[in-house]
């Protein structure tokens, strides 16, 4: 499963949720006919641990998104799913374009600088106001690298390496 976002809070009394997307283009996956939910994706041992829900609708609300799932028709039902992560099987996701990546594809890749020195592995991603950020873990050292063209030289998912302009002591 690819984790796309999280249901962050019930909205209203008719089963709607506030949605926090983990991607910069939620419209691409908001058109999918169903989403899968799980309380903790790291604890899910297989796709069978995820529950499928048909997506009724998603719409913009203020600076965010709200979503309605079929069969979740009141606040109590929405509260029971509060905090769940939203995922979709990889094969149902739209194909990525050139130089486009799903965050899930980046997590676990080794990050090397232009000298070939390993800076660690991508442990997660952060969506910041200006740009996305790679969280790179190297033992006890954590580096936050902006995921922008001036820092990221190359992403080679097949070989498992991201090459960056970044020094080990920065």
Q: How do the helices and strands line up, and which of them pair or pack?
A:
Layout (H helix, E strand, L loop, with lengths): L1 E10 L4 E6 L5 H4 L3 E5 L12 E11 L2 E6 L5 H7 L3 E4 L14 H4 L3 E4 L4 E10 L4 E7 L2 E6 L5 E5 L4 E4 L6
Parallel strand pairs: 7-12
Antiparallel strand pairs: 1-2, 1-6, 2-5, 3-4, 3-6, 4-5, 7-8, 8-9, 9-10, 11-12
Structure description:
This protein has 170 residues and is mainly β. A hairpin with a 2-residue loop joins strand 9 (132-138) and strand 10. The chain has helices at residues 27-30, 75-81, 103-106; strands spanning 2-11, 16-21, 34-38, 51-61, 64-69, 85-88, 110-113, 118-127, 132-138, 141-146, 152-156, 161-164. Helix content is 9%, strand content 46%. The two termini are 34 Å apart. It is built from three helices and twelve strands; from the N terminus they run E-E-H-E-E-E-H-E-H-E-E-E-E-E-E. It is elongated, with a radius of gyration of 18 Å. Strands 1-2-5-4-3-6 form a six-stranded antiparallel barrel.
């Amino acid at each position: 499963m690819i984790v796309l976002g999280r249901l962050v809070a019930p909205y209203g009394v008719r089963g709607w949720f506030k949605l926090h997307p983990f991607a910069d283009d939620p419209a691409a996956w908001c058109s999918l006919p169903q989403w899968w939910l799980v309380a903790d994706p790291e604890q899910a041992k297989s796709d069978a641990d995820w529950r499928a829900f048909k997506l009724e609708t998603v719409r913009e609300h203020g600076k965010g998104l709200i979503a309605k799932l079929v069969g979740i028709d009141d606040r109590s039902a929405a509260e029971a799913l509060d905090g769940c992560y939203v995922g979709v099987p990889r094969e149902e996701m739209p194909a990525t374009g050139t130089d486009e990546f799903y965050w899930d594809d980046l997590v676990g890749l080794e990050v090397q600088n232009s000298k070939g020195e390993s800076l660690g592995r991508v442990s997660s991603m952060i969506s910041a106001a200006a740009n996305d950020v790679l969280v790179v873990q190297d033992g006890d050292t954590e580096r936050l690298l902006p995921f922008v063209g001036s820092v990221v030289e190359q992403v080679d998912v097949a070989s498992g390496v991201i090459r960056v302009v970044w020094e080990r002591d920065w």
